[in-house]
Amino acid sequence: MPPPADDARAALAAALRAHARAVDARLGPLLELRRLGAYRGYAELLEAIERLVARGARLHRIGRSVRGEPLFALHLGDERPGARTAVTLSAVHPIEWIGVEAHLALLDQLVDADLDGRAVIAVPIVNPDGLLRVESHLRAGRRRFVRHNARGVDLNRNFDASWHERGLVQRLLSFIFAPGSRPGSEPEVDALAGHLAARRIDRSVSLHSFGGVVLYPPAASVWPTPDAAEHLAWAKRIAAGADPKPYRAIPASWWSLGITQAGLELDWLHDRHGAISFVVECSRRNAGLDPARLTQPFAWFNPRRPDVVAPPIARALVPFVRGDAL
Fold first, then answer.
1. Rounded to the nearest 5°, which phi and psi values hold at 300?
2. How far is it, in rounded angstroms, from Cα 230 to Cα 211?
3. Strand 84-90's sheet: what is its strand order?
4. C-alpha atoms less than 13 angstroms from C-alpha of 277 in its C-beta half-sphere
5. Contact, 272 vs 286, CB < 8 A?
6. What would the DSSP string read from start to end of 179-215?
7. Are 196 and 275 in contact (CB under 8 A)?
8. Which helix (H) or strand (E) holds 86?
């Protein structure tokens, strides 16, 4: 039986072979013609993961999606379960590609860094089925909003954090914020929870889009957490570096005008694991007044210049993820 690392590399190679045609037909030039930005498709993102592995990141296959796509985690630094660990996530919502680009830019800076006995566990593509669906729409020139996994569940409402305490708005708009049949019902969330169960997680960040804001717990309550001061201090530091015009730094429930949100990875990583936990909503005002972008949902969430937007977000996150003190 091959060791886990060999199994993961074989799964990555198989996924690349399965999507090889998309590698041959790069997505970025097509999107540039439509003024949507030079974003990489799924196969190209797998290539980027492969390059990180070649530079020393350790690859783990942690599960499979609804449609059987492998779910990959990259480990950096100390591999011992007891090591203090930062968790980084992106593509929880599959249309938010700028989050993936910022995440890969972050890993590009961390893969060669001395983490001084700490660990980083990164899952760049939490929702591959959804991302592939977005890519299919983009290649066909369709204008579609995609938020869910292949079973129609919003993965960022499926975590075991106040899942049973959904408010009125979340219940009325369940077709958007579809929470699944139970906490962790979706294989993507279950795989992530299982992979992290034994880790000593003290920091986490999930990269989303849009809004230009750094969110911290709670999302499921309007009452501050006991560690709110530490969250706010780090959120302000990240917000100041993420963009020349600093992002806002606020609790998640305040950002939604006091409307509480249940089942978020933000609260799950904080409540279940004790992590100082953030969601970074990357970029702002993405569509502008460009008619070609105003009617394209992909453009609402993703700026036209990912090469300009992603690097400063990554630089702003490096000190937090590698375990620096405030």
1. -65, -30
2. 22
3. 58-64, 70-77, 119-123, 84-90, 200-208, 276-281, 213-216, 248-251
4. 20
5. no
6. --SSTT-SHHHHHHHHHHTTSEEEEEEEEE-SSSEEE
7. no
8. strand 84-90
Q: What angle do helix axes 228-242 and 306-321 make, rounded to 10 degrees? A: 150
Q: What is the pLDDT of residue 2?
A: 46
- Can you give the three-state secondary structure of 213-260, one letter per residue? EEEECCCCCCCCCCCHHHHHHHHHHHHHHHCCCCCEEEEHHHHCCCCC
**Is residue 14's pLDDT more than 60?**
yes
Cα-trace Rg, the chain: 18
Joined tokens for residue 234: 């780090």
The angle, 0 to 180 degrees and rounded to 10, between the axes of the packed helices 4-18 and 42-54 is 150
Confidence grade of residue 1 (pLDDT, cut at 50, 70, 90):
very low
CB atoms within 10 A of CB 68: 12
Record the tokens describing residue 294, joined without a space.
Answer: 């105003």
- Joined together, the tokens standing for residue 227 give 């560690």
Q: Which two tokens stand for residue 74?
A: 């990259």
pLDDT at 70 over 60: yes
Domains and CATH numbers, the chain: 4-321 (3.40.630.10)
Going 300 to 249 to 197 to 319, the CA torsion angle's sign is positive
Token output for 180: 């699944």
In angstroms, the CA 75 to CA 10 distance is 17
Reported as a single tens digit per residue, the pLDDT across 156-197 is 999 999 998 877 778 877 878 899 999 999 999 999 999 999
**Other C-beta atoms within 10 Å of 136: how many?**
15
Residues 6 or more apart whose CB falls under 8 angstroms from that of 229 comprise none
> Measured between alpha carbons, how far is 285 from 303 in angstroms, rounded to an integer?
8
Q: What is the DSSP string of 16-84?
A: HHHTHHHHHS-HHHHHHHTTS-----HHHHHHHHHHHHHTTPEEEEEEE-TT--EEEEEEEE--STTSE
Strands 70-77 vs 58-64: parallel, antiparallel or unpaired: antiparallel
